[in-house]
Automatic annotation (TrEMBL), chain A:
The keyword Protein transport does not apply. It comes from the Bacteria. Gene3D superfamilies: P-loop containing nucleotide triphosphate hydrolases (3.40.50.300). This is ABC transporter ATP-binding protein. Pfam families: ABC_tran.
Automatic annotation (TrEMBL), chain B:
The chain crosses the membrane at residues 20-38, 287-311, 331-363, 383-402. It comes from the Bacteria. This is FtsX-like permease family protein. The keyword Cell membrane applies.
Length: 215, 416
């Protein structure tokens, strides 16, 4: 599903970071571990197609990402990849339901109202359907953000520090939500984190050590 | 979900900001719309009212006053001229048509015009009901006059001197309503038509009356061309003015000079005088117009600043949407659309406001009604206003839109 080899990313012509080679099979879940500044987010952005300029090779779902144009990459992201960020940022101008509807709209997939209702029900947010997202509690907002990421049934779910700001109880809940969603759609889940609590939840791990300088 | 829903939600999320931008722009647009409607209609009215009248001949004085008084019936007469002299001009071979006007009195501020049937024909007037005036003191009312005074056929009224509403200075001579005209959308709607003789009769109570009625019976006397009931050489009768139509373009060259050469008369060209009037009024209109443009520029600036600022807040929104598959073009278009929707709304509100103000004005102010200015007329230039505002919106949104286009998603998302 993801194949990374000889990957190097240059922040500036002088500073670069090299990543270890790894391969993730379909349906496997990986933990991307490392301290702050070790390049977890950069690797996630590279594999998720948010960063285009790299050396080496990143093949996702059989496509070398650097061969895609900016627009093609946008479409690729929309259809194949779901992102969950630490800030679980929702669009505050929109209602809960509209935030979810944005997902298929931006990915140019058909809108399935029944599916959205189903997802809202599953998250216990059916009565918040038309509420502004600013009225949600943090836990509710996080659930909506996860629902938004998995709504298009992506092949890969990338989560960037989804739990670092949460207490143990909520941490467990988010991880099981992510794992359930991944299992339901047969998605691959990659979680970048320095949160030690997650080590026991996902067995595959990639460890990044600080700032690899390429040879 | 569509781009429009998204844009609309963003506008709704900042209601005050959106409202102030719409209000600012709409004020500027409303002023422009009012000026457009007012000016266009006024010019139209003036052209309509002056159509077929090449020259106005009256007593010496201000030529503009002569035009205002005798064509638009808004100013006071410059004085009287002798019928005998007017007749001489009417018989000139360069004159195709000469219409006498005898002014001076009014009823409830509606001017009573002593004239011939040709005056009504000039504006293609038709009777709505009743009959044309024939005998002295019979009148036919313009459509507005009837509507606003509620006079009925057979009613009688006394005129008052000048254009004031009060006072019946001529209570001993009562006019009788014989007919009402259909609306012509010209000045004719606002006047009361009667024979020249009526005006004389009302005013000559001090003088001996013998001339008026007896002259007609004498077949050997040459009749006046303007007022056939009196002799051509009558030296006492006076009228206010003469409306001339040339027989050929030669008239335009020779007649004004011929008239002005006579010590007691002056000639004024409606085309020239109205053009002069417009150039005087134009300065005021230009200042108001400039003010409107300043308002529009400020509102454009305000929209630009609002978009620019809100985009700074929305950088993360943009990045998230990109991560969800939105293309750069989509974000660019959404910001442009936001500017366009704002200005289009503002200009729509402005155009409606402009029409609303004129509708209100024509309901409340009698003068606008008399002038026949209506708020219900739409001009094609208003499309230009709408199109222009849309363009303004796109222009204001351009820089923020390019910023949205250039958003570095990875950098924004990583800057937690």
């Amino acid at each position: 599903m993801i194949q990374v080899s000889k990957l190097v990313y240059r922040y500036t012509p002088a500073t670069a970071i090299a990543f270890p080679d790894f391969t993730v099979q379909k349906g496997e879940h990986f933990l991307l571990l490392g301290d702050s500044g070790s390049g977890k987010t950069t690797l996630l952005h590279l594999a998720g197609g948010l960063l285009r300029q790299y050396e080496g090779s990143v093949v996702v779902d059989g496509t070398e990402l650097s061969t895609l144009s900016e627009t093609a990459l946008d479409h690729f992201r929309g259809k194949k990849i779901g992102f969950v960020f630490q800030r679980n940022h929702l669009i505050s101008a929109l209602s809960v339901e509209q935030n979810l509807m944005l997902s298929p709209y931006l990915a140019e997939l058909p809108l399935d109202h029944a599916h959205i209702t189903e997802v809202l029900d599953a998250l216990g947010l059916e009565n918040k359907r038309n509420s502004r997202v600013t009225t949600l509690s943090q836990g509710q907002a996080q659930r909506v953000a996860i629902a938004r990421a998995v709504l298009n049934k992506p092949s890969i779910i990338f989560a960037d520090e989804p739990t670092s700001a949460l207490d143990d109880k909520n941490c467990d809940r988010v991880v099981s939500l992510l794992l359930d969603a991944a299992r339901l759609h047969g998605s691959t889940l990659i979680v970048a984190t320095h949160d030690q609590r997650l080590k026991s939840k996902l067995q595959h791990q990639i460890r990044l050590t600080a700032a690899h300088e390429p040879a | 979900m569509s781009l429009f829903t998204l844009v609309w939600s963003y506008l709704k999320a900042r209601p005050l900001n959106t409202a102030i931008n719409i209000v600012l722009l709409s004020l500027g647009i409303a002023v422009i719309t009012i000026l457009l409607l007012f000016n266009t209609q006024l010019e139209q009215k003036i052209t309509d009212n002056a159509r077929g009248i090449d020259l106005v001949v009256g007593a010496k004085g201000s030529p503009l006053q002569l035009i205002l008084c005798n064509i638009f019936h808004v100013d006071f007469p410059t004085g009287n001229i002798k019928l005998k002299e007017a007749d001489k001009i009417a018989r000139n071979r360069l004159v195709k048509r000469a219409i006498p006007l005898a002014l001076g009195d009014s009823y409830q501020s509606y001017r009573i015009v002593g004239t011939s049937r040709e005056y009504a024909d000039l504006y293609k007037a038709e009777l709505a009901r009743g009959a044309w005036w024939q005998l002295p003191l019979e009148v036919t009312l313009g459509a507005n006059v009837q509507r606003l005074t509620q006079l009925k056929l057979g009613d009688t009224f006394a005129s008052s001197h000048g254009l004031t509403e009060t006072g019946s200075d001529h209570a001993d001579h009562r006019y009788v309503v014989k007919g009402v005209l259909k609306p012509t959308n010209t000045v004719l709607d606002n006047v009361i038509l009667t024979a020249v003789e009526s005006v004389w009769e009302v005013h000559e109570h001090a003088e001996e009356n013998e001339h008026t009625h007896q002259a007609t019976t004498d077949s050997t006397v040459m009749h006046s061309r303007l007022v056939p009931s009196v002799a051509a050489n009558d030296s006492l009768k006076e009228i206010t003015s003469l409306l001339l139509t040339y027989r050929s373009p030669m008239g335009a060259i020779q007649l004004p000079r011929f008239v002005n050469a006579q010590s007691s008369l002056q000639a004024a060209s409606p085309a020239f005088e109205t053009a002069r009037l417009f150039s005087i009024l134009g300065v005021g209109a230009d200042i108001i117009m400039a003010f409107a443009y300043v308002l529009i520029v400020i509102s454009g600036l305000s929209i630009f600043i609002a978009l620019y600022n809100s985009l700074k807040e929305r950088r993360y929104d943009m990045a998230i949407m990109r991560s969800m598959g939105a293309t750069r073009t989509k974000l660019l278009v959404s910001v442009l659309l936001e500017g366009g929707v704002l200005t289009l709304l503002g200009s729509l509100v402005g155009v409606l406001m402009g029409h609303g103000v004129l509708i209100l004005l024509s309901r409340l102010v009698e003068e606008t009604q008399k002038a026949g200015i209506s708020g219900m007329i739409f001009y094609s230039q208003e499309w230009v206003i709408l199109g222009g505002s849309l363009l303004l919106g796109l222009l204001c949104a351009l820089i923020p839109a390019i910023q949205a286009y250039r958003t570095d998603i990875s950098k924004v998302l990583a800057s937690q």
